[in-house]
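Researcher: Good morning. I'm working through a list of sequences from a screen, and I'd like to move beyond sequence-only analysis. For each chain I'm collecting a predicted structure so we can compare shapes side by side. This is the next one on the list. No need for commentary yet; just the structure.
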Amino acid sequence: MSRRKRPFLTMSFLLLLLAAPVGADVIHLKNGGTVTADAWEERGEDLIIHQGDDTLVVPRADVLRIEAKPDPDNPPPVKVQFEFSRQSTPPGVQRSMKDLTVDEIQTRIKELKRLLRESPDGREKRTTEMVALLNHLGERAYRDRDLVSAQAWFREANDHDRRDALAQLGLAATYFAQGQDIYARSTLEQALLDHPRDPSLLLLLGDVYYSQERPEDALETWEKAETILPGEPVRKRIEKLRREHQIEESYQRSDAAHFTLMYDGQIAQADLGAAILQYLEDEFSAMVTRFDFYPRQPISIIVYPQRQFHEATLAEENVGGLFDGKIRVPIAGLKRLDPTSRAVLIHELTHAFVSGKSRGTAPRWLHEGLAQHVEGRSTPAAVNRSLAEEYRSLADTAAWGTAFSYPSSLSFVEHLVAREGFFRILDALESMGEGVGAEEAFERATRYTLRELREAWGESLTRAHLH
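Model: Good morning. Structure tokens for this chain:
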């Protein structure tokens, strides 16, 4: 069973929203949220919001209107509102940035660099505009999952303004999405020296701490973010971590070259933990070769007693393991590794490799089909016959194979491996990791659409199992 590793957070999601106290400008957002401001200013394509000593950054495109706070000494006769318009666009950018092409933005950046070299006049305004343009390019690339380009744009923006919160956040997010937790953490910790109460930076830093097996630091960081901007994204993280930490705080920890293992020492013997680590280390090189992918970070494995597994993960009773960025498996009284437990471990390890290679974007059917295939399962003839009968009964095969099930996922992956070769699936995973959707990734890799591949699978099943 797989859950996606490291949700790919959008910049607007990371910029959380506050409930509005009385006596401050109220910034109304298009999504219905509000942010309060002691003061605010436009900077490039962003609105810079000041709350005491803190600063928030919100894209202007997300702002519906700004409602000015009343002046008790001179109250206005009507409520004052401000609508963003093209007239408020910074000099040199005549259209909204979202309407500009990448080439147009890059041309403007080159022009700004030339002006900065040739004249000191207006340096601050030109630098502000250039940083906003670079951040916008970074956000576009990040949204398209072109993490290399996003990292370059955000780094350049950061070079021009070391204290720009969005550049710091974007740079850290690209590091984290690529598994470079150490760089993400150092970037965020430095950024928080400039913006100590920025909730977006705190939220992401908590995610990094959690990935690095530092639950106390993650909890403290998320709790601080929640006091500044309470909301469901932070609350869910805190609840999940508290639930896990309550169970896992007394667990023993063992480290190997590529894995970190945590287990209940009162239930599992130390030699069982050593056997798990040894088995996974033995399999690691083969998995690296098989997937042509080398994980940047050690993979975490947590081994639970049966009841605690379900309490920690909230998984259904029939779930034998899951991957949510960490491999989590129940031992159910296991004393030593047996073929069943090895299959579960290799199944979940496959999820880690598929998630890493696709950067968390592989669809569920591919995750589960590959995990079953790599662990050594094969589809029973009776299941393939049933699938063949289902396919032949359809008047329209357009939606054939799109509904998820574990048996159909394995059968389809087996067909793809036999027809196209495992390396074509790796090509598709690599494209997904570069920001390409699954449909396009498979068409690039195989020259066929997923619909055509599924229909070919149905025809193959019919020929092989129905006479």
